[in-house]
Each structure stands twice: as structure tokens, then as C-alpha cells.
Amino acid sequence: IMNSNRATDFSKAGYYISFLGTVLILLWIGIIKFTPEEAKAIRPLIENQPLSSWMYNVFSVQTVSNIVGVSELFVVVLLLLTLKFDNLKRYAGIGLCIIFLMTLSYLFTTPGIWRIVDGLLITDFFILKDIMYLGFGVALLFSTKK
Nearest CA to 64 among 49, 46, 76, 77? Predict the structure, then answer.
């Protein structure tokens, strides 16, 4: 049986591993959004999602991608600020939930994202990682003391 101090240490380590992974992934994908290649790559996802499809009527392909990138980088900064300001965790959690619910919604709104290969239903697996990040966002959202 593990003593409670050791369990707390492992729990904190798990939190910071999840924190670091989320920051690195969001930082990476946020920066990539400023490239023309990524702007073109995300267009089918965004233009088929009812809540975001309107953006291409107003902005260029690159500007839409830049807006997404800025949003992701904003949440990275917010996450980093939670290291000093615990009361920001709720807002960082909201930001993570919005980002990752939106990307997970692409699994249901993008034509052709699911297909049968060798008798198995598959999808673009890079989106499935967002289930874990959504979980981290929910944990942050409800981790602060009321």
C-alpha cells in the first residue's frame, strides 16, 4: 500500500506531465497554424463545421488559420499563467474545452473523415488525441476551489 504523501507526489507528477504535454501540443499546433500548408490542411475541417464555416465568407484561408492559431496560443499563455495564478485554471479549462470540443466535432461534421480500410472503420487519428486534452480541460475547469 502506498502512503498518501507518495500518492500525492505521483498525482502532482501526473498533473504536471499532462500540463506540459498540453502546453507543448497547443504551442506546436498553434504555431503551425501560421503556415500556408496548415491553413489549407485545416480548411475542410473548419468549413464543414456549422459553428465555424461562416469564417471563410469573411476572412481568407490564412486569416482563419491565424485566428485559430492565436486562440490556441492564447490558451497556452493562460495555462502557463496558472502556474502562478491558481484562479486562472477555470478559464484555461474553458479554453481547452472549447478548443478540443471543436476539434472533436470535426469527426462528425467533415465528410470522408471516417472510412473503411481492410474491414476496419478508421479516421484521422490525430484528432482522437483531443479526447485526452479535453479531459485535462475538464479537470482544470473543476479543480479550483469555489
Answer: 46
